[in-house]
Every structure is written in structure tokens, then in C-alpha cells.
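Long-time lurker, first post. I've been practising inverse folding by hand and with some scripts of my own, and I keep getting stuck on stretches where the C-alpha cells seem ambiguous. Below is the full C-alpha cell string for one chain I'm working on. Before anyone asks, I'm not after the true native sequence, just a reasonable design that respects the backbone. If someone could post their per-position residues I'd love to compare against what I wrote down in my notebook.
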């Protein structure tokens, strides 16, 4: 393969690993951003804010347009509810679904609910907005890194496809759980960008270098003067980082 063709392939691979967060108060605003990025971004995240603003209707239309949806539902409830919610998410066509990875009852319920659906189950380990002081307030006697690893093992043992975790913990997850376990990393900020409400942030290149498979990016793209240019720059950075990692 020529170097130009190889780079095109790496860029396409990187584009498939960028998840753009449609974190808007209305489906109309989210749809406008998705339309701007169509052709360059394949995967969009629909989270709780948008779910309560016709986000599931938008999800259907984006899937019909050929996109994949990362449904960031962050499920945590009694097992019966988690199981049925997971079943419904699979029927909707979610490519990825998040579940809080706090305990085996919750994780096992999600695995049962998925059944034969193609939905990839991802356990939330520790939210990237939290740091060690926050965990101490909850009387959790572990550091974020220790708790992330504990929950990653719990998720793998339950049959989950991967976890959502800060890139600061990605290297240790990759070392302990191997290459077949997916690591999806939020809290991504290009160099020079504000951290905002995130506590454990890294650049796209750093996240890839540490072992992340997918990056979730919101405001650095959605709030950029030119969202498409911002997305393309992040994809290029991811492609270059994967070249170095591979």
C-alpha cells in the first residue's frame, strides 16, 4: 500500500473512532451539528440531556442516515429495569450503550438484556469530572485509578465489551485486560483548550498513545467557530497518534 493510501486508511480508521457528543438542549440544535459533520464523522453520542429532548427520535434518523449511535444512558437501577432498558436500546439500534459499572447485579442484568443484539456494552468506571477528593467525600477508600481498574475487571468478568474511562487510566487498563477490551475515553481537550467541568483531561494524541480505542469529544467541536474543521483536526491528530502506536 502506498504511503498516501496508507494515510487515507488511517484517517478513515481514526474517523470511525471519534464519537462526537451531541450535548444540546434540543434535537434541532443537535441535528444541525450532525448535518455539518456528515461525511466526516460516523459516530454520535446521545446523552441524557438530549434523550429528554426528542433525542431518541433523532437517534432513529441518524441511524437511518448510516451513522452509529453511542447511547450514553448511564444505566443504574434495579436489575429488572436495567435488563429491559438494555433490551430496548438494542432494539433501537444503539451501537454502544453505557451502564454504570458499580456492581455485578447491574452488569449481569445488562448482559442478559442485550441478548443477541449487536450493541456493545460499556461500563462507566469513574466519571472524568471526579477526582480523588470527590471519592473521599463518598467515603470510597480508593484512588480514581484503583477504582477504575477494579470496575474494569468487574465489567470484563460480566461479559462487557469495554469501559468508559479517563485516558489517565487507559494504559493500566490495557496492560491488565489486553487488546480485546475496548476503552472509550471522554474528557478529551486539544492542547490549549479549557478543561471546563472535567478534572482528568488529556489531548487526543495522549489518549490514543495510552491505549484508548475511541474518543468522545464534545465542546472542542460543538463550540468551535468551525466545527467541521475542529473535527478534522482531531481526526488527523488521532490518525498520527495511531501511526505511532501501531
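-- Answer (accepted) --
I ran through it position by position. Result:
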Amino acid at each position: 500500500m502506498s504511503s498516501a493510501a496508507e494515510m487515507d486508511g488511517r484517517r478513515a480508521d481514526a474517523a470511525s473512532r471519534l464519537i462526537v457528543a451531541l450535548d444540546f438542549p434540543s434535537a434541532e440544535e443537535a441535528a444541525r451539528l450532525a448535518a455539518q459533520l456528515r461525511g466526516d464523522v460516523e459516530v454520535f453520542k446521545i446523552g441524557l440531556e438530549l434523550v429528554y429532548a426528542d433525542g431518541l427520535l433523532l437517534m432513529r434518523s441518524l441511524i437511518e442516515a448510516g451513522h452509529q449511535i453511542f447511547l450514553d444512558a448511564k444505566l443504574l437501577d434495579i436489575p429488572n429495569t436495567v435488563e429491559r432498558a438494555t433490551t430496548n436500546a438494542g432494539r433501537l439500534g444503539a451501537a454502544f450503550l453505557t451502564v454504570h459499572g458499580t456492581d455485578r447485579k447491574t452488569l449481569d442484568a445488562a448482559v442478559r438484556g442485550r441478548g443477541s443484539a449487536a450493541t456493545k456494552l460499556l461500563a462507566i468506571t469513574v466519571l472524568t469530572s471526579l477526582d480523588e477528593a470527590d471519592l473521599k467525600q463518598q467515603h470510597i477508600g480508593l484512588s480514581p485509578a484503583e477504582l477504575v481498574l477494579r470496575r474494569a475487571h468487574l465489567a470484563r468478568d460480566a461479559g462487557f465489551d469495554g469501559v468508559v474511562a479517563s485516558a489517565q487510566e487507559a494504559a493500566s487498563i490495557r496492560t491488565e485486560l489486553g487488546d480485546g477490551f475496548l476503552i472509550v475515553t471522554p474528557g478529551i481537550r486539544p492542547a490549549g483548550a479549557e478543561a471546563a467541568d472535567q478534572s482528568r483531561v488529556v489531548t487526543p494524541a495522549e489518549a490514543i498513545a495510552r491505549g484508548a480505542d475511541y474518543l468522545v469529544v464534545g465542546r472542542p467541536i460543538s463550540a468551535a467557530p468551525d466545527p467541521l474543521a475542529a473535527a478534522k483536526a482531531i481526526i488527523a491528530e488521532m490518525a498520527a497518534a495511531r501511526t505511532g502506536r501501531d
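A couple of notes from the structure itself: The longest helix spans residues 227-245. The chain has one domain: 3-245. Happy to go over any region you disagree with.
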